[in-house]
C-alpha cells in the first residue's frame, strides 16, 4: 500500500465497502457521539467520515487529534445506515472504521477556524493565508482560477496563437503607473524595472515575424489598492497579432472571453451582443468608461429645458461655457422618500445635492411633483418627461455644471438607482467595447499627457497630430463587463515618424524617445508590420465569475491595503551587506 494514501477523500463509494484502505488529510471536524469519535477527514478533493470506537486499538491515539491536524488513517470501508446517508457528500454513503492512525503533522491552537463560515479580520486572514486557503470557498476560488487560465490557454492555442514568455527584468517604461525599480549590482547607480506589461516585447515579437503571440503574463505596478485592483502585481491574458484591424482583435478575443464566462458562469446569461460605444457617449450616458449595461438607465442631456427657466441655479449655470444639465431617469423611483434619499447620496458625494422631479396621479391626472417642477413649470416638465420616456411612478434626477465636475458622481448615482429600484439584472454578464478614446488629456498642471497607452496609433495617422492634441482619438479600446474594465488594447503605432510626433505632443523629445524605447524605435526602422492586440485581466475575470466583490478573494497570496505581505513580512529592510554590494544608501524618513 502507498505510504500515505490508497485513495483520496473524495473517492470512496458503496462499491468499496469491505475494502481496507488508507487515507490522508486534515481533521476538518471532530465529534464525540456517545463515546464514538467521528472525524470529517478533508483533503484537496473532498471529505470522508472516519470513526473510531473504544474497542479499537487506535482509539487512544484518535482521542488526541484536534482540528487541522494532518493525519493518515487505515481502516475498513463500511456502508452507512440508510438514515445516516449524507447526500451532500460524494462519499456520503460510506464511512471508514479506523484501525490504525499516524499523525503526520500536529497543529497548534488555530488563529482562525477552517471549519464553519466565521468572519475574521482581513489582517488575520492574510497573516495566516495558508489556513485561510484551506477554507472551502477560498479553496474553490483558486481552483476556479486555475481552470479559467487553462481554458484561456486552450482557446488561444485553438486559434493558432503561440505562447511565448517575455523578460521580467527590463527597462522602465511609461504605462500609466509607477514602476517597481530593481537596482543593478553589476551596473552601480543604474536600475532595472519590473514590467508594467509586456508591451514593448510583444510588439517586438510582431516585428520579429511571429504572427500571433500570447502569454499569461505577470505585470507589476506600484499603484494604490482598490477593491478590484492589486497594489503590486496582477496577471493578464496578453496577446498581439500582425496585419490586423481593430475589428480583427475584437473578433479574436470575444470568443475566448465569452467561452470562459459560459464555461464557468454557473448558468448566468452571457450576452452575445457586445455593442461598441464611444468613450464620449459612455461618459455621457453612463458617467464612466466601464459601464454596467445590466442597468438599463441611460443618462441624457436636458439643458434646453432649463435654459432661461425659473430654476435660477441651472439657468445661470448654462450661461457659462462648457456647462450642461443631465438627467438620470429612474423608472419606479417616483416617491418623495426615494428622491430625498438620492439627494442625500449626492451630498455625501460632495455635491450640493441633486434636483429631482417625480410623477404621480393628481386631481387632473398625471402630475409632476418636486421643487424643480414648481420652478420650471408644467410645459418644460412635460417636455422632460416625454424626452426621458417616463410616466406615473417614475422620477428623474438632475445634475449640472461642467461634466468633469459631476460626471463620476452621476455615474455612481446611476448605479445606486439601478440597484435600489431593482432595475439591474444581477444574473447576467453584459459586455461593451468602449472605443474612440482620446489620445491625450491635460494633467493637473495643465500639461498635455497620454490618456491611455502611449504606443497606440492615432486615428488619422500623422495628419491627425497637426491639430489640437485634445481632439486626437486613438485606435484604443477597452472591454467593460458589469461595471469593470476587463480588457484593454490598441492598434499599435508602428511608424517611427508618427511615434516621434505623438510623444513630442506629450512632452517627450526625440532623444528621450530613443533613450527610453531605443529597442522598439530601432526595430521599427526595419519593416515593422501593422499590428495590434489587447490584454485581459485574469484577476478581475475570476472575481466576476466567483461573484466576489474584492480581488483579494481570487488571488492566492495577496497584499493588504497597504501593499504589505503580512505572511512573508514584505516589504522588509535590506541588510547592510546587500546595500553595500548595490552601492545604495537608505535615507531615513524625516
Low-confidence segments: none
Task: Give the C-alpha Rg.
Answer: 30 Å
Shape: globular
Q: What's the number of extended β-strand segments? A: 24
Query: First CA to last CA: what distance?
Result: 65 Å
Give the oligomeric state of the chains in this entry, treating copies of one chain as homo and distinct chains as hetero: single chain
Largest sheet: 8 strands, mixed
What is the overall number of helices? Answer: 16
Mean pLDDT: 94
Structural class, by secondary structure, is alpha+beta
Q: In order across it, which strands form the biggest sheet?
A: 6-9-10-24-23-22-19-12
Strand content: 15-25%
Helix content percent band: 25-40%
Note down, in words, how this protein is organized.
The protein is of the alpha+beta class and 590 residues long. The chain is 28% helix and 25% strand. The chain has helices spanning 59-62, 122-127, 129-132, 136-158, 199-207, 246-264, 279-286, 312-317, 336-348, 371-388, 403-420, 496-505, 510-516, 518-523, 538-545, 576-582; strands at residues 20-33, 36-42, 47-52, 70-79, 94-105, 162-163, 180-183, 191-194, 212-220, 233-242, 269-270, 276-278, 300-301, 324-330, 355-362, 365-369, 395-401, 428-429, 431-435, 440-442, 448-450, 476-481, 484-491, 531-537. Strand 1 and strand 2 (36-42) form a beta hairpin. The chain is globular, with a radius of gyration of 30 Å.
Amino acid at each position: 500500500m502507498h505510504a500515505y494514501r490508497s485513495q483520496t477523500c473524495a473517492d470512496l463509494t458503496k462499491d468499496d465497502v469491505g475494502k481496507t484502505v488508507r487515507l490522508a488529510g486534515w481533521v476538518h471536524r471532530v465529534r464525540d457521539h456517545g463515546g464514538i469519535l467521528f472525524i470529517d477527514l478533508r483533503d484537496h478533493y473532498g471529505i470522508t467520515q472516519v470513526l473510531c470506537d473504544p474497542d479499537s486499538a487506535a482509539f487512544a491515539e484518535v482521542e488526541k487529534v484536534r482540528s487541522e491536524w494532518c493525519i493518515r488513517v487505515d481502516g475498513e470501508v463500511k456502508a452507512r445506515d440508510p438514515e445516516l446517508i449524507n447526500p451532500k457528500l460524494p462519499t456520503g454513503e460510506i464511512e471508514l472504521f479506523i484501525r490504525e492512525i499516524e499523525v503526520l503533522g500536529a497543529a497548534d491552537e488555530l488563529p482562525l477556524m477552517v471549519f464553519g463560515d466565521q468572519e475574521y479580520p482581513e489582517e488575520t486572514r492574510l497573516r495566516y493565508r495558508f489556513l485561510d486557503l484551506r477554507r472551502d470557498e477560498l479553496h474553490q476560488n483558486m481552483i476556479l482560477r486555475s481552470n479559467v487560465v487553462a481554458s484561456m490557454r486552450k482557446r488561444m492555442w485553438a486559434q493558432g496563437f503561440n505562447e511565448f514568455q517575455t523578460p521580467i527584468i527590463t527597462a522602465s517604461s511609461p504605462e500609466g503607473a509607477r514602476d517597481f525599480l530593481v537596482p543593478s549590482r553589476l551596473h552601480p547607480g543604474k536600475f532595472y524595472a519590473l514590467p508594467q506589461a509586456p508591451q514593448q516585447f510583444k510588439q517586438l515579437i510582431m516585428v520579429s515575424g511571429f504572427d500571433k503571440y500570447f502569454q499569461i503574463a505577470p505585470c507589476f505596478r506600484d499603484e494604490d489598492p482598490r477593491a478590484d485592483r492589486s497594489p503590486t502585481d496582477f496577471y493578464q491574458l496578453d496577446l498581439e497579432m500582425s496585419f490586423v484591424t481593430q475589428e480583427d482583435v475584437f473578433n479574436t478575443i470575444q470568443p475566448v472571453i465569452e467561452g470562459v464566462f459560459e464555461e464557468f458562469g454557473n448558468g448566468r446569461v452571457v450576452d452575445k451582443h457586445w455593442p461598441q460605444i464611444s468613450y464620449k457617449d459612455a461618459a455621457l450616458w453612463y458617467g464612466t468608461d466601464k459601464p454596467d449595461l445590466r442597468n438599463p438607465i441611460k443618462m441624457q442631456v436636458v439643458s434646453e429645458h432649463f435654459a432661461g427657466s425659473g430654476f435660477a441655479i441651472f439657468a445661470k449655470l448654462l450661461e457659462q461655457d462648457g456647462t450642461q444639465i443631465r438627467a438620470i431617469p429612474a423608472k419606479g423611483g417616483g416617491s418623495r422618500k426615494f428622491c430625498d434619499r438620492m439627494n442625500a447620496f449626492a451630498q455625501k458625494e460632495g455635491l450640493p445635492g441633486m434636483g429631482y422631479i417625480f410623477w404621480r396621479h393628481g386631481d387632473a391626472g398625471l402630475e409632476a411633483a418636486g421643487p424643480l417642477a414648481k420652478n420650471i413649470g408644467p410645459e418644460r416638465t412635460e417636455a422632460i418627461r416625454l424626452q426621458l420616456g417616463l410616466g406615473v411612478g417614475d422620477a428623474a434626477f438632475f445634475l449640472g455644471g461642467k461634466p468633469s465636475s459631476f460626471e463620476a458622481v452621476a455615474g455612481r448615482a446611476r448605479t445606486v438607482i439601478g440597484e435600489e429600484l431593482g432595475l439591474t439584472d444581477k444574473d447576467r454578464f453584459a459586455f461593451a467595447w468602449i472605443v474612440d478614446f482620446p489620445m491625450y488629456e491635460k494633467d493637473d498642471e495643465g500639461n498635455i499627457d497620454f490618456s491611455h497607452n502611449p504606443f497606440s496609433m492615432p486615428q488619422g495617422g500623422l495628419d491627425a497630430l497637426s491639430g489640437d492634441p485634445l481632439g486626437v482619438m486613438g485606435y484604443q479600446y477597452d472591454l467593460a463587463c458589469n461595471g469593470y474594465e476587463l480588457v484593454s488594447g490598441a492598434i499599435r503605432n508602428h511608424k517611427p515618424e508618427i511615434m516621434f510626433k505623438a510623444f513630442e505632443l506629450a512632452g517627450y523629445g526625440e532623444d528621450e524617445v530613443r533613450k527610453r524605447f531605443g529597442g522598439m524605435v530601432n526595430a521599427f526602422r526595419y519593416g515593422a508590420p501593422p499590428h495590434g492586440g489587447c490584454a485581459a485581466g485574469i484577476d478581475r475575470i475570476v472575481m466576476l465569475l466567483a461573484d466576489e466583490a474584492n480581488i483579494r478573494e481570487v488571488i492566492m497570496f495577496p497584499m493588504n491595503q497597504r501593499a504589505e505581505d503580512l505572511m512573508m513580512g514584505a516589504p522588509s529592510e535590506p541588510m547592510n551587506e546587500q546595500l553595500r554590494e548595490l552601492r545604495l544608501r537608505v535615507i531615513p524618513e524625516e
